[in-house]
């Protein structure tokens, strides 16, 4: 708690809640113990300990569900006020009472994370929360994209009668202090409830924005230890307290705080939260962090194409290109789909031999990584181009390698491809319309390959270079792995014969390439 | 280069110069090549490639000296304007011409890093630089501590006639955008030369401060890749460009930039620059980063004592304490000085046996780490208290362990020690005046131990637990190691017999503890 100019501003630490995005809401109990002991000695008013959620299909840890015993445990560890948060879009209003029952007498404040388009629905939830005896905060997300109509909407008027706190959430972490001040000034005209601010740190403005929010009237601001939180993370508790100590002389035990910070730095070594260039761009252009990082790390899009995509009003379609739409002149019974794994290098000799002897098999490259093995072969070859693939291709293909080659562009990724476009292969580019697989697995080059196979009336698909991932697997690689597995399953369900010709961790039938020679 | 409102603002990247603080100005030439290629494709106007310096006693790499061949190499790698910096306090005005000779025709701008108290002297240097045909920038450091008298000083008037650029350097990295704006407004009243801003990121305000500087009239701002730079580091080039791209539509190839960022992130893994709680506090309270980190990591001061020290007007002296000044009642011929290494644990039995049999030997603890070995012994024991040592002691000593024990406080560290002060050992505290060793090695507990030994008229000093450091040695540990070695050397020069009784990496005579039993 700080008292700038006689006002009381309270501080909320939401490390367990927001940090859970990295640990899947599991925390070592010794760390939790140290966390609470430290919070108890700091001028923090609220501790937000996690979510209350309905059961999910995938695993999430304790601080995502907060069962009764864990609520009790937290309560016993501190006399500070406790808060939890509920994802509004994941619960129905009639489920709220049941969900909050274990929290009664333990939790002081319930916060609802709400998207602007659900504001009306959320107000009914808020009323129910309030009736259960909790303080209620409505945390309205995506502040950088709020439009003028929000402030004059019917729903907005009702907030005064229901809420204890209305929170401005800079979800993209790209706001500037002036923008924050403007929003608070507008809110103060319309709302009489207390205001809060939750900042993200994509462009390193979480602190200055929170200070601007306090100056503009916020009476509750959020922070997390070491900024631990989704993507680029949050305002750092230690930074906020350092500055509030300087500015308002709020007492802080920096040694106890530093010991906690050191413990969380160990976690940071492992999970590596914090900002980076993709997150900065997601902040600067109000793009969802997951989308940006997914496109860069999973779909291999270029950052330039992502930034350029911001200014275009709608996604490009096949008609936006000067290239013809792909329509095959020939069918193939068998196709070899080549992924980016390393095993094709090991079996290069056998693969070449097999393709030479079976020139009626066509090759579809979902990645360019193994391209060199497939030069100077009699087979038709198709290249799935998305993301940065064209730049890789350019380095590996000579203008002489034109024969029987077609480059297929995904419309969504076309903006990238025109970029490094070379005239070397003029006439060989065609645009691939979305088929069954791409509709389901947008922007996946394996889905592109399967849509191409469908167009070619293929009956048999031989995968090579779909090895799976070993060692330190990134979340994006894990997602790719699961997605490819689903694509294989779908292909089987559609009656295609699918198998792997190189060693693979996927659940897929396999044959040895040597058995075919 | 960006053009906000018709003005031209230029950008300067000083990664090699400021990043050199971490690499000792050695950089892998492939990285340098990638760096230049990337800079060539970005809207960066100046590249500051390092220092020009006179020869130093200790090793510094190429980008600290910039010999002619390296200047040429840089020149051949880019057509951007090149800058170098000179530490004004390290050169005499009459040395400037010689120092800059190799730069003529290669370097566009020479910057002088100047402390406010040397402004007058620096103007003469600036004139000489200018006469050699360079653009001259005067980078005035410690902006957060500038006083009003600076702006009205005689020297200040002369700047207009000499300089091309006057730079505001936020050396402590703790300024806020309002403070930056105020400084620029004051400068604009007094100066007609172009203004620049160099921000540090201790409290994560390097970006917002640089934007505030631009708004307030700066026409040249600095940044480094990944913020690589001394201590908490600088404004990140990738962050600045992301925001300038959004704000002013300056064209940026984010993919090429990101590849460079990834290369520097590898370096960051190794050198771990960036802000942390000690750096935040050094920013918030305008304390030199090295002092704060040195006191925390080398002298084991508490952060609280450092922050508290900010408000006290002068360093405490012996007279500031309620304890008597140390004056020994008894002399000792031999003393055992116990450091914090782990070997005493291995030889605990032998050490105890030796001390029991030789109760006329006194023990001086320069660290409390091995204290438990020395309980219940007949020997006189002295404890050197500095930094957080008192807290460690409290956990290890019972009130029963009073006998023949004296706690010696270093006046400089007294502020810390009063903190966790316990009445358990009332009457046993004395203040140690600075002697020969402490005058040379301020705040070192080994120096304290040697000053105590001098007071006791000791002839022979046996060190135990001075093992040296192995494994991943931090810079602070390396400094401690060198400092202890110097203390041993000094002791020998003063005619003391000094040796180690436990295995040690120091250059010091040794005896086996077992040979003495």
TrEMBL record, chains A, B:
Pyruvate carboxyltransferase domain segment(s): 9-258
Catalysed reaction equations from the record: pyruvate + acetyl-CoA + H2O = (3R)-citramalate + CoA + H(+)
Entries under PROSITE patterns matching the protein: PYR_CT
Pathway(s): Amino-acid biosynthesis
Origin: domain of life: Bacteria
CDD domains with a match to the protein in the record: DRE_TIM_HOA_like (cd07944)
Pfam families, A to Z: HMGL-like (PF00682)
InterPro entries: Aldolase_TIM, Citramal_synthase, PYR_CT
Protein name: Aldolase catalytic domain-containing protein
Native species: Autumnicola psychrophila
């Amino acid at each position: 708690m700080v008292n700038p100019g006689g006002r009381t501003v309270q501080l909320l630490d939401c490390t367990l809640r927001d940090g859970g995005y990295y640990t899947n809401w599991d925390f070592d109990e010794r760390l939790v113990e140290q966390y609470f002991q430290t919070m108890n000695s700091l001028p923090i008013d609220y501790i937000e300990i996690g979510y209350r959620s309905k059961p999910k299909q995938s695993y999430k840890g304790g601080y995502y569900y907060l069962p009764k015993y864990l609520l009790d445990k937290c309560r016993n560890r501190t006399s500070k006020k406790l808060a939890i948060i509920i994802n509004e879009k994941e619960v129905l209003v009639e489920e709220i009472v049941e969900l909050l029952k274990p929290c009664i007498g333990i939790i002081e404040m319930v916060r609802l994370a709400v998207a602007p388009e659900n504001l009306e629905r959320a107000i009914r939830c808020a009323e129910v929360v309030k009736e259960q005896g909790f303080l209620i905060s409505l945390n309205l997300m995506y502040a950088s994209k709020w439009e003028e109509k929000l402030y004059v909407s019917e729903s907005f008027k009702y907030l005064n009668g229901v809420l204890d706190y209305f929170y401005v959430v800079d979800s993209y972490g790209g706001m500037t202090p002036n923008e924050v001040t403007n929003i608070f000034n507008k809110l103060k005209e319309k709302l009489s409830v207390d205001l809060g601010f939750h900042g993200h740190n994509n462009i390193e403005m979480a602190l200055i924005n929170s200070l601007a929010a306090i100056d503009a009237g916020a009476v509750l601001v959020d922070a997390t230890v070491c900024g631990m939180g989704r993507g680029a993370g949050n305002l750092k508790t230690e930074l906020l307290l350092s500055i509030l100590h300087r500015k308002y002389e709020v007492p802080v035990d920096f040694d106890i705080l530093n010991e906690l910070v050191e413990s969380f730095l160990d976690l940071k070594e492992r999970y590596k939260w914090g900002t980076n260039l993709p997150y900065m761009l997601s902040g600067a252009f109000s793009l969802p962090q997951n989308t940006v990082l997914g496109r860069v790390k999973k779909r291999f899009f270029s950052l330039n194409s992502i930034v350029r995509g911001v200014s275009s009003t709608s996604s490009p379609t096949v008609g936006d290109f000067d290239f013809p739409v792909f329509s095959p002149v020939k069918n193939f019974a068998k196709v070899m789909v080549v992924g980016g794994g390393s095993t094709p290098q090991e079996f290069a000799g056998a693969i070449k031999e097999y393709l030479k002897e079976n020139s009626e098999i066509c090759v579809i490259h979902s990645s360019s990584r193994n391209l060199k093995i497939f030069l100077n072969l009699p087979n038709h070859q198709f290249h799935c181009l998305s993301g940065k693939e064209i730049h890789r291709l350019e380095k590996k293909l000579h203008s002489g390698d034109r024969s029987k080659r077609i480059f297929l562009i995904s419309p969504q990724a076309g903006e990238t491809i025109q970029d490094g476009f070379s005239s070397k292969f003029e006439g060989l580019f065609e645009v691939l319309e979305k088929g069954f697989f791409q509709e389901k697995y947008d922007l996946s080059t394996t889905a592109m390959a399967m849509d191409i196979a469908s167009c070619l009336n293929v009956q048999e698909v031989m995968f090579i270079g779909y090895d799976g991932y070993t060692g330190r697997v990134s979340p994006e690689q894990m997602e790719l792995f699961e997605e490819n597995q689903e694509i294989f399953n779908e292909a089987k369900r559609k009656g295609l014969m699918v198998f792997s010709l190189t060693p693979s961790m996927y659940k897929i039938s396999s044959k040895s390439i040597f058995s075919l020679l």
